[in-house]
UniProtKB/TrEMBL annotation:
The keyword Transferase applies. InterPro entries: Glutathione-S-Trfase_C_sf, Glutathione_S-Trfase, Glutathione_S-Trfase_N, GST_Omega/HSP26, Thioredoxin-like_sf. Keywords: Transferase. Gene3D superfamilies: 1.20.1050.10, Glutaredoxin. It comes from Pseudomonas mangrovi. SUPFAM superfamilies: GST C-terminal domain-like, Thioredoxin-like. This is Glutathione S-transferase. GO terms for cellular component: cytoplasm. It holds the Pfam family GST_N_3. One of its GO terms (molecular function) is transferase activity. The lineage of its organism: Bacteria, Pseudomonadati, Pseudomonadota, Gammaproteobacteria, Pseudomonadales. Residues 1-78 form the GST N-terminal domain.
Length: 197
C-alpha cells in the first residue's frame, strides 16, 4: 500500500502514526499538494494529502477514513474500540476540527500575509481554536482510556501542529490537562519517529 503525503501535513501524520501503531507497512510517495503533481491528481482529484492507495488500486482520501481502514487491517489493539466508540469518535472529531482550524489559519497567513489573522475568517478560526482547547482540557482526560485510541492520536497530532505552526498560542503552558495527556503519547515511537520539523 502507498501513502501520498508530505512531511508537515498533520493529517498525513495521523495516517502514519496509525499505520505504525497497527504494524501496517506503507510505501511513502512524498508530494507537494500545492503544485498539482500528476501522481497525486491521478489518485485524488482534490489534490490533497494524505491519500492511501490500496493493493487493489482503490484510493482513500481523508485522514480519518484512512485511519479507520488501517485500523481494520490488523488485529493489534483496536484504535476505535466498540465499547468506547462514541467517546473516541467525539475526541477524533474535536481533534480533526482543531487541526483544520489551525491549518486554515496557517495557510491563510502563507497566501494572504500576516493581515489574514485579523480577517473575519482568521478571527473566527482563532476563536474556534481557543474554545476547542478549553473544551478538550476537560474532555480529553475524562475520555482517555488505558489503551491508545484514534481520538488520542488525532488530538495529540493537532496539539503538536499548533506548537509547530502557531507557537504563540502556547497551549502547553496554558492547559495542564492537555499537557499531561499529550506527554504520555509523545514518548511513543510512533510519535517520536514522525515528529514535525
Ligand atoms: N480533511 C482532510 C484535510 C487534508 C488537507 O487539508 N491536506 C492538506 C495538507 S496538510 C492539503 O493537501 N492541502 C492542499 C489543498 O488544500 O489544496 C483530511 O483529514 O485528510
Amino acid at each position: 500500500m502507498q501513502l501520498h503525503l508530505n512531511a508537515t501535513s498533520p493529517f498525513a501524520r495521523v495516517a502514519r502514526i496509525v499505520a505504525l501503531e497497527k504494524g501496517v507497512e506503507l510505501e511513502f510517495c512524498w508530494s507537494d499538494p500545492w503544485s498539482d503533481q500528476a501522481e497525486l491528481l491521478a489518485v485524488n482529484p482534490l489534490a490533497r494529502v494524505p491519500v492511501l492507495v490500496c493493493d487493489d488500486g482503490e484510493s482513500i482520501g481523508e485522514s480519518l477514513l484512512i485511519a479507520l481502514h488501517l485500523d481494520s487491517l490488523s488485529s493489534r489493539t483496536a484504535l476505535l474500540p466498540a465499547a468506547r466508540q462514541a467517546a473516541v469518535l467525539h475526541l477524533a472529531g474535536q481533534g480533526i476540527g482543531l487541526m483544520e482550524a489551525a491549518f486554515n489559519r496557517v495557510i491563510a497567513r502563507k497566501h494572504e500575509g500576516a493581515t489574514a489573522d485579523q480577517s473575519l475568517l482568521g478571527q473566527r478560526r482563532l476563536r474556534a481554536i481557543e474554545r476547542t482547547l478549553a473544551a478538550l482540557e476537560t474532555d480529553w482526560p475524562a475520555r482517555a482510556g488505558e489503551q491508545i485510541s484514534l481520538g488520542d492520536i488525532v488530538i495529540a497530532v493537532a496539539l503538536d501542529y499548533l506548537a509547530f505552526r502557531l507557537p504563540e498560542l502556547d497551549w502547553p503552558a496554558r492547559f495542564p490537562g492537555l499537557f499531561e495527556c499529550h506527554a504520555r503519547l509523545a514518548a511513543r515511537e510512533s510519535f517520536f519517529s514522525t515528529a514535525f520539523g
